Amino acid sequence: MVMQFLLIANIKCSGSLSGINSGDIADFVTYCNTNLLKKGAPSGGGAVIDQWNVAGEKIKLKLVSDRYVRVHDALLRLKNELTKLLGKHRIGLRGVEIEDYRILMDWDEDWQLKKLPFVKTLKQERGTLTLALDVDESALANRIPDRIVRLLEDKKEAAKWKGKSEHWELLFESEKKPFYFDKDPTEEMANRCWIRHAAGRGQFVYGPQITKIFRAFERILFDEIFTPLGYEEMIFPKFVSWDVWKRSGHAKGIYPEAYYVCTPKTRDPDYWEEVIDYYKVTNEVPVDMIMKRIENVGGMCYAQCPPSWVFLQGKTMPDDILPVKVFDRSGTSHRYESGGLHGIERLDEFHRVEILWMGKKEQVIEHSKQLRAKYRHIFDEILDIEWREAWVTPWFMAQEGKAGLAELREVGTIDYEGVLPYSAKMLEFQNVSVNGDKYPKGFSVKLQSGEQLWSGCSGVGLQRWAAVFLAQKGLDPDNWSEKFRSAVGELPEVFRFL
Amino acid sequence: MVMQFLLIANIKCSGSLSGINSGDIADFVTYCNTNLLKKGAPSGGGAVIDQWNVAGEKIKLKLVSDRYVRVHDALLRLKNELTKLLGKHRIGLRGVEIEDYRILMDWDEDWQLKKLPFVKTLKQERGTLTLALDVDESALANRIPDRIVRLLEDKKEAAKWKGKSEHWELLFESEKKPFYFDKDPTEEMANRCWIRHAAGRGQFVYGPQITKIFRAFERILFDEIFTPLGYEEMIFPKFVSWDVWKRSGHAKGIYPEAYYVCTPKTRDPDYWEEVIDYYKVTNEVPVDMIMKRIENVGGMCYAQCPPSWVFLQGKTMPDDILPVKVFDRSGTSHRYESGGLHGIERLDEFHRVEILWMGKKEQVIEHSKQLRAKYRHIFDEILDIEWREAWVTPWFMAQEGKAGLAELREVGTIDYEGVLPYSAKMLEFQNVSVNGDKYPKGFSVKLQSGEQLWSGCSGVGLQRWAAVFLAQKGLDPDNWSEKFRSAVGELPEVFRFL
Q1: Second-level CATH architecture of B168-237+305-488
Q2: Active-site hit among A428, A437, A479, A485
Q3: Which fold has domain A3-162?
Q4: Is the ipTM of this complex over 0.90?
Q5: Which residue of A37, A166, A406, B43 has the lowest C-beta tally within 10 Å?
Q6: Whole-prediction pTM
């Protein structure tokens, strides 16, 4: 792709430049154009000073470059050299004013770009995109132009995948199993008062019977996975600060689905008196007044494992403790799901046991196979459900807003799906993922040997397990396998209503 | 307290009133002043039409009242009668414009009122408070003036308690116990990598050792309380919508301490594209842009039991299922605590097992005594700690911003406190509360017999138990009681760092 960068900058100096021999400046420009601004670029590439002008205390420069030694990098190189040159005349650099910054590139996309950050004007015609940027020197130091170019590449990639379905490839399919139910388990549980829709969107209160079923799922995880495979329990944070989501990559795309968390700007009671008074006088919560008094600091747990990495952040571990296997079941996850009622199959608030392992590449891959064997045993022998495994777009790519095929066959996500007989739809009810070195890299966790640390995770959604199990087997324990019936025990009867 | 209300209203009619005999209107005013606006008031009290004037299609009225049949109630009564009178002339009422509304009352407070909702001007002098209100007819129908008066009473009450300490009265004190530790357990745990401060304020990641201790606390609750006393587990919601906090009373005062939850105004990816682009170009999360795209819908779990009442909301239960005993341990609680580092003693994010029972008054009181006996056994015989019980301001009063003494001896909160030897401070580590009929009333839950339904709750903070236990006994299991050591089992060693 052809790309051109243009920059007009006014460099302000601490004194008049009239005393400097104009030959010296011409030599400096020649040095830049033949050497300094070419270093590292392929032959014929790099930046040049296209025009220059010295007047009073100012040097005006027009820089032009291709994608190598882009004009903002060229400006930085040049400033350092210029500082040395002027230093001999006891003149310093006072600042740089960016008069113009333009990017031109090939652009064959048939969709329209609307608005881009730091872009004043945007022209898209005859196969060329021209951007005029609104940037100052510090924006250039922060490499804003480079990130705009990368953003455009992201958008092209996203457009390519738009409308296409996610990658999906069958890996394994269980035997056919008998179904004993053809209704929607959510409705049936609501009728029996096992659950009740709570005050929030996609949120339920779970009564004693279904809670006991969830706890039986957990007990199966303990007996079949945690104890035999040597897992230990940890407690992962449930509020997730932006810093975590920046490191995990979620800050790239989580926004439309996040439950946002905001904290008071101050705890001072006087600051809140007006809000309290308003509520007491109207019996209405003044959300607009509240919005002005709080600030967004992150969100509620979305993917569960990312905030746990803070435990290891910046640390180096000895290789001999690997593989490490931990799990967390200490709280809720929240996603702003699409509207409408979905029952317990698709919830805004749900409960998940998050399973996390780490080790060297081969250990992590090997362990994911062990886990898959254990799950197969649980689904075939204990829950006795019909299910399948599919290779899909890795979850962290999906959550960063990236689509498409996983390039690697080692890093990626396996989704587990089961049919819901009442709707004949397939429901994804858990996953097993090998995440490569993504998290150790994002949170700077290292091994003593210097080898790459890898990790994997698997999220068991209790409501999703229940949705598939109950849809296939129904709410009557007589239709459950002997093993599962005994894992659950007697279903408690606590409440009755008139 | 002397109180006076004044109202000037312009009633607009659908036609000219010139055709109505002025005697009829005078009769109407006399009827109002001697009968209609006096009904229900003590002799000499009530409202009067002080001035009245008919011009074209308008009737202008000046109403004056004391605290009985306040002028806005008087206006409502009068409008109904006037509708009948004018109806005979085929004239209807088109609307009421409130020209002036004033409240005058005795005010001996020595502190200054600043601002009040719906109050245009506020004058506080020579023992009298004068409020000029900015209200329309619908605000009067919503009884805004009554609520302003109640708010002023609240503020007087709060001012009375300001600076005074909460009610505290010793109920019971355990024997002295040996202490084996004089350090801050948070620091010691951090040194040993049992915990690490997470990315959020007052938030930790809990490693395998301390998590195993927390789970031992839970196992003790199961063995000593849940199983013998017939408790069943439920799962309570962890996002709390404003509707719940309106019913629980928290909407009256939770604001300075809440963790607020906001949801996207829409899930439409286009709506969020600018935010995503900005992040990708700057690597900074644009919280200001986010704040404009989200709306506040409630907060994160604060008191744990309130959202569970939605399960029962509006229902009637047969008496024979009582007492009902349930608990929840399905997630985190969040409070915006005062600044500074407090370790695990005072956290923004913590884990609590919430114990909830309900029944008739005597059942609820009786059960709270059973629970207290069980706790006493746990603290004396298993944890072997030094502790005490105190009768304090009920938790729900404190959380509604109310201070002072509990009037009743049956409804109220018992705090459990233990000394932290390293700081010699007392830490409240759990409570047992009898909440009377507060929650059944707030969520409209009834008994078939018509008798009052009561409830109680007890929150076991896992971090608080750990803070007191570890501060007194230390991190070395050799100094723990045999019973607790065996409840915990071996402390797992999973991670090591260089």
Answers
A1: 2-Layer Sandwich (3.30)
A2: A428
A3: Alpha-Beta Plaits (3.30.70)
A4: yes
A5: B43
A6: 0.93
